[in-house]
Amino acid sequence: MTSTMKAVGFKQHLSLENSESLFDFEMPIPKASGHDLLVKIEAVAVNPIDVSVRLNGSETYTDPKILGWDACGTVVATGDQVTLFKEHDLVFYAGDFKRAGSNAEYQLVDERLVGHAPRGMDIPEIAAMALTSLTAWEALVEKLEIDFDQPLLNKKKTILIINGAGGVGSVATQLAHLAGLHVIATASRPETSAWTKKHGTDQTINHRQNMSEQLYGLGYQDVDYILGLSDIDGHWEEMATMIKPGGRIVSITQNKHPLDLGLLKSKSAEFMWEWVYTKSFYQLPEMITQHASLEKIAALLEQGRLKSTANQIIEGINAENLKAAHAMIETNSSIGKIVLCR
Ligand SMILES: NC(=O)c1ccc[n+]([C@@H]2O[C@H](COP(=O)([O-])OP(=O)(O)OC[C@H]3O[C@@H](n4cnc5c(N)ncnc54)[C@H](OP(=O)(O)O)[C@@H]3O)[C@@H](O)[C@H]2O)c1
């Protein structure tokens, strides 16, 4: 192994027209210690968080900052405290918000955030899955407390998933369907509506029109659960209208304006946030649950019960291709996942 590697990074928060918004560079290959795995990256998926971190901020970094959270790759070295993995294991993960990302030839990642890759799948298909699956899993299982072992009980319950065809929605609809729930998802275009129906959604409504009226038209006064995967500010009042008394709402997108929590009071409905990086950001002991969740996701993928949501695969992990992927995410109209591979 040589001592340096190629990576893609940025020093200033710039729009894509600027050639320095993302650039190729070389740096030393990091060394694994403690719980870290050194992973040779084979494929990465691009997420809205990449775009958001690239764009938002005013600082100038001395060393380039490397983006990229989703990855699939091979373990090439392990730290002295590693117990869950060994060299040559193929792994997938969503990484840690604070550390150098996967847009590089090699990356360090804490083993507690990593899962063994499912067998029998192509590497780009696997790379598409970690961040969105973990987010959907934590929202459905840990926050909404949906019990996957109770499909008969869940059959009587309905979930509304706002943004059904995006990266997270494409997994959440599949998982909710597997749990036995009746799944209503939102989509505003024929192609996003068709995509979400292919991924576990029973019925669709359009998030750019009055949703509660459409729900009523489908025969529902309200729903047991709402999973908000886009624009909480824009949808908050309708979410409060559509949730059942005693129901639960979880959002993965942050509000830009104050939310009126009082709208949930008379219904005693609950509201929760989900951020997939909370556990690693605060180094919580529960970090290891991400290893366990990814192992479960891998089993579902291996059994064919969960399908990869990779929708576009680009060959070459470099600045030019990453810029193209960021440009697509910036349109806020992605369907499934965009993956870059070697
Ligand atoms: N908290 C966390 O841990 C976490 C994890 C992952 C992602 N996120 C955040 O969650 C959001 C979704 O992520 P993603 O990867 O699923 O996004 P994505 O793949 O980029 O979502 C694209 C989809 O968003 C839909 N959309 C656009 N505007 C909408 C609106 N106003 N209401 C509902 N849907 C709308 C579009 O559907 P149509 O074309 O049909 O309108 C499009 O297909 C992003 O903001 C991301 O940063 C948070």
Write up this protein:
With 342 residues, the protein is of the alpha/beta class. The protein folds into two domains: 184 residues, Medium-chain alcohol dehydrogenases, catalytic domain (Quinone Oxidoreductase, Chain A, domain 1, Alpha-Beta Complex); 138 residues, NAD(P)-binding Rossmann-like Domain (Rossmann fold, 3-Layer(aba) Sandwich). The protein contains eleven helices and 16 strands. Strands 3, 5, 6, 7, 8, 15 and 16 form a seven-stranded mixed β-sheet that branches. A six-stranded parallel β-sheet has the order 11-10-9-12-13-14, with helices on both faces. Helix 5 links the parallel strand 9 and strand 10. Helix 3 crosses helix 5 and helix 3 crosses helix 10. The two termini are 17 Å apart. Bound molecules: NADP nicotinamide-adenine-dinucleotide phosphate. NADP nicotinamide-adenine-dinucleotide phosphate binds next to helix 1 and helix 5.
